[in-house]
Each structure stands twice: as C-alpha cells, then as structure tokens.
Design a protein that fits this description.
By secondary structure, this protein is an alpha/beta fold. About 40% of the residues lie in helices and about 15% in strands. It has two domains: about 35-115, 2-Layer Sandwich (Alpha-Beta Plaits); about 120-390, Dihydropteroate synthase-like (TIM Barrel), CATH 3.20.20.20. The chain contains 14 helices and 13 strands. Strands 11-10-9-8-7-6-13-12 form an eight-stranded parallel beta sheet. The protein has a three-stranded antiparallel beta sheet with strand order 1-3-2. The relative contact order is 0.09.
Length: about 400
C-alpha cells in the first residue's frame, strides 16, 4: 500500500520520519531532500552553463539549457534553469569550490543553504518579525480613489474610522492624499500637503500604530514625517523624486518600494513584459540596492510587487501564484490587492462587490509569502489572516 505525503512544512516530514522510527540525527538530510527548488540563472557563459549542468547531473539534480548552448559561441551569454533539492545544492556547492572561476554561481547556491530567518522590519525603535499577517488599513483623502468606501474628507468621520480600525486590531494605517489609480490625474504638491496638514496630526494623536503616508514627492514625505508618519509608501520605488531616498534616510523612517511600469496616468495602456517575474524581481533588487546605497537601513525596507500598477489582467494572477519567488529578496512583502479590478472584472463585479474575492486572494497570498496587506476592510482581513496563520505559519 502506498500513499503520497504532502510536505508543505518541515514539521510534516519530521513527524512522518519520527513515526517510522528514523534516527533523528538523519532528519536534516531528509528535510533537505524534501525542499525542492527551481532556480533560474541568466547571463552565463557557454562554459559556465555546461559545467553547471554536468555538476548538477553528478549530484543527482538536473538543469535545462538552451540547445545552442552546447555549441557555444564566443561572447554569447545563456540562461539556465536548475532543478534540485537542498541536499543536491549542498553537494553542488561543495564541488564548485574546486573551480574558482565558478565562484559567483557557487556563492549564489551557498546563500540558499543559509538558515532562512523570517525578515525583521524596523519601524522607529520597534522591530517586527514577519511571523504573522499584518494588516494596513487605508484612508484616502481624495475624491477620486477607485473605491468610494475608502474616501474620507470629513474630519469627524476620519476620527471615527481611525478609532474603529484601532478596535479592529489594525497594525498600520496608510494615508493617501493623491490617488494613483489607473488614469488618475496628478495632484499638485501644495494640494497634497494641505490635505495632509488637516488630517495627519489628528490621526497621529488617535492611534499608536505606525502611520504610513502614500506619496512619491520628497517635500510631502518630509512634512508627513514631521507630522508623525514613520513609513513612506512610494509607488514609484523611489524613482520619481530623486530627493526621496535621502529624505527617508535622513529621517530614519521605513519605506515601501513598489514595482510599477510607467506612471499612474498611463500605466494601464497595454502593459507588456517579456519575463514578468524576472523583471519585477530585478527591479525590486535594484531599488533595494539603490535605497541602501542612499543610506536607508535595509531592515526598514518593505517591497510591493504592485498588483494593478502597469499590469495586464493575467499578470496579476501570475504574481499572486508565484509571489514566493520574491521571498529571496529577504524583505517583508506587502500586497495591495483589496477590491481591485482584477478581483471583480472577470465576473462583472464593481468595487463594492469584491470583498469575498479579496479575502480569497488574501489567503493565497499569505501561503505564498505576503506578510502585510493594504486593505479597505480591516475586520475581515484580520480574521482571514488569523485563521490562515493558524494553519500555515
């Protein structure tokens, strides 16, 4: 009699090994054999792809390379996809130590063998470990945000909403004074500052949770920080305003770096990608490197794949399904999926009718590596996060 074991957590295989009486000293070997990975390398020489493939085969793994990589060609560069479990990667890394010219590849493999710790996020003097789901409630001070349920202009209502979020157990509050929805028209710096000046000081007094301000303008960010914000949520990934990174670094606040193709007004005009996940991964890695070079503490960086920002409908579904590929960047992953068009448009549902779809997607995203969710519905998101955490974390 035979059955399949679904090894989704380390505890699953250790329990099974223990049940059949395996020596505990051997557990680590078998655990590594269950942790299978598919790794994509790019820009390798002909010699590198062929040596890496042969090393993989010797160690019990396998690798796929382009058919023209066997013949080679001077100066040509090639990709490679490696199929291996951690035990095989361990063996490969040891063999490649004997070949210094393969040092970069060896170091990449070695990084996978390090103990994988959950990312830590610094906010002010606090340190948060990403070992549960965190909920970020949205307050938009704009008349044109896509979901009317998040638009607030009356101060008394805003105070009421903040109090409700506190009672619901919100972990962060994100305030936006300019809409960045598709086709949105940019708001002037003065208008954005005026909206924040009116609201932010009161919100800071009403809550103890960290406040995030959604802006890509350095002057607005500086004001927001002075008024109590400890996170700057920049949809441009610190690109639109060259002063932004230094402003964040100087004030030692945290930042959300998001991937976006184009600008809000034009980003949904037929966005196309040659290799969606590679482009998002590489963009975020480069922006993390830029932020650190600008003086921002890496532990203060959150990344966001930018669902709905310069993405075709199916691009969003691919990102949701393959989100765990971004965990390699080592930073907490925030996702803003709440009530967006890709949740409801295939079914003819407007923003008001997208709650159930939003919560279903949230459960998938938690399983695939997201830690922070920017949402319109705090109570519901908090409940979903708690029960999914109980099962998968």
């Amino acid at each position: 009699m035979m059955r399949t074991i679904i090894v989704d957590q380390e505890k699953t295989i250790t329990d099974e090994l223990n049940n059949i009486g395996v020596d505990p000293d051997a557990f680590s070997i078998f655990i590594k054999k269950t942790q299978c990975m598919t790794l994509k390398f790019s820009n390798l020489s002909c010699a590198q792809v062929n040596v890496l493939k042969q090393t993989a085969l010797i160690c019990g793994a396998d690798a796929a390379i382009p058919k023209n990589a066997y013949r080679g060609g001077r100066g040509k560069r090639f990709p490679l996809i490696l199929f291996a479990n951690l035990r095989e990667i361990e063996k490969m890394e040891q063999r490649l130590r004997e070949q210094p010219w393969m040092g970069y590849i060896r170091s990449e493999l070695a990084s996978l063998l390090l103990d994988t710790k959950k990312p830590v996020l610094k906010i002010g003097r606090k340190k948060l470990t990403m070992d549960r789901t965190y909920i970020m409630g949205v307050i938009n001070l704009t008349p044109d945000s896509f979901y009317s349920g998040s638009r607030y202009t009356d101060m008394s209502i805003i105070e009421e909403v903040v109090s409700e979020m506190n009672e619901e157990g919100v972990d962060f509050i994100d305030i936006g004074a300019e809409s960045t929805r598709p086709k949105s028209i940019p708001v002037g710096e003065k208008e954005e500052i005026m909206r924040l000046k009116r609201v932010l000081p009161a919100v800071a007094k009403l809550t103890r949770v960290p406040i995030s301000v959604d802006t890509y303008k350095a002057k607005v960010a500086a004001l927001a920080i002075d008024l109590g914000a400890t996170i700057i949520n920049d949809v441009s990934g610190l690109r639109f305003d060259k002063r932004m990174a230094k402003t964040i670094a100087r004030n030692r606040v945290s930042t959300i770096i998001m991937h976006m193709k184009g600008k809000p007004r034009t980003m949904q005009r037929n966005p196309r990608y040659k290799d969606l996940m590679s482009e998002i991964h590489d963009f975020l890695q480069k922006r993390i490197d830029y932020a650190v070079e600008s003086g921002i503490d890496e532990d203060r960086i959150i990344i966001d794949p930018g669902l709905g920002f310069g993405k075709a409908l199916t691009d969003n579904y691919i990102i949701i399904r393959r989100l765990s590929e971004l965990k390699q960047l080592g930073r907490p992953i925030l996702v803003g999926h709440s009530r967006k068009s890709f949740v409801g448009n295939p079914f003819g549902l407007g923003p008001k009718d997208r709650l159930e779809g939003t919560l279903a997607i949230q459960s998938l995203l938690i399983q695939n590596g997201a830690s922070i969710f920017r949402v319109h519905d705090v109570t519901e998101a908090k409940k979903v996060g708690s029960v999914i955490d109980l099962i998968v974390r």
